[in-house]
Amino acid sequence: MSNDNAPLSRPRQMLFSLITLLLGLLLASLLGELFFRVFPAGVSDPPAPAPYNYRTPDDAYGWLVQEGYRHEGTLRDRCDSTYALDVSFGANGFRKWGNPAAVAGRKKVLFLGDSYTACAQTSDDRLYYKLLGDSLPIEVFAYGAAGYSNAQQYLVLEKYLQAVQPDLVVWQLCSNDFIDNYWELEKVAGYHVRMRRPYILEDGSITHKLAAEYPRNVKPWSHFLYYILKRIAEARGTFDKPPAEPAEKFIAEQNMAYEPFARSVRMTDAIFKKMKALVLPQTRLLVFNADGYQPQYDQFARLCQENGLAFAGSLPDYVQAFEARGECIRTDDGYHWNNRGNELVAAFLKPFIERMIAE
To answer: Strands 168-173, 82-88: parallel, antiparallel or unpaired by DSSP?
Structure first.
């Protein structure tokens, strides 16, 4: 008698059920992954509001400024006053692109930095480097983007150095550059960018990392799984929740004894060395820090001194002296400069730039 129609044993039934379930889950996952790859809106962060939506992702640079971006509107400053805003980014995403040809009696000055140099909170005609260009015999070039690290600034300079061939590079720093310069430090900081970007290691080599905590670090591997994990984290109230004790606290308390900060300082030193080696022999380099948080400010000053870079110190003290008199110099975020702040920064930098272009 044939046993072909004999019922399956219970173990075999369980095995086939498990295989069917796994195949079903695999198919559902593949379809879900395909859906979110084709329609990524469900796993994408909402776009930044204007005028902060000028960045566009880039595989090599992390992100770049949109060439031809334009915004007209209003903004509020820290004193709750409204002012007009006319922002544009021109050729190659530069906020200012002067004449790259040699002009008799005029030096070419390239301003490089992060959001303080992008200065999306200030109209084109009120920017600190525009004011400097109006009062000094210089051709002004300026490139900056929100969240940029020192490594990204180095790569931008490397890309445009030959096209501009500046006589002077004015490099604007910010205390959170140390967080931007090391992905592990950003993961445990209160300040986050959470975008994939290049990093320069201590040996000068370049790597790319996504400095993001769970579940954001799952997204590069699976959009579908990220969608599910994000919804769970949102329901629990843990999604993008800042750490109870952020890295900024340990930096302020421990300085170089806090190893993530110490490594970032070493990586930043490597960037400074590469930046100095990159500029042409006839090009001067002037460094200034937009804020005065400690110990970051002192570490920048030390790195400049050890690498032989000119450091325009005391800008934070200079600006804060006017704030102490009751002047409003910042936008409503409490950090970036409004029109008056740009005027003060231009006034502070002018004697440094005058001296360096005359030497």
So the answer is: unpaired
In a domain, 37, yes or no: no
**12 within a domain of the structure (yes/no):** no
- Model pLDDT for residues 66-108, shown as the tens digit of each residue: 999 999 999 999 999 999 999 999 999 999 999 999 788 899 9
Q: What is the reported pLDDT for 281?
A: 84
- Which two structure tokens, joined as six digits, stand for 118? 């992008």
Q: Say how far residue 344 (Cα) sits from the centre of its chain.
A: 24
For residue 71, report the phi and psi dihedrals to the nearest 5 degrees. Answer: -145, 130
Number of domains in the chain: 1
**Comparing C-alpha atoms, which of 70, 72, 60 is closest to residue 93?**
70
Q: What is the pTM of this model?
A: 0.93
| Terminal-residue alpha carbon distance, the chain | 106
Cα separation, 224 vs 220, whole angstroms = 10
d(CA 152, CA 159): 11
**Residue 217, C-beta contacts closer than 8 angstroms, at least 6 positions apart:** 210
- What is the token pair recorded at 23? 């195949």
Q: For residue 32, is it within any domain?
A: no
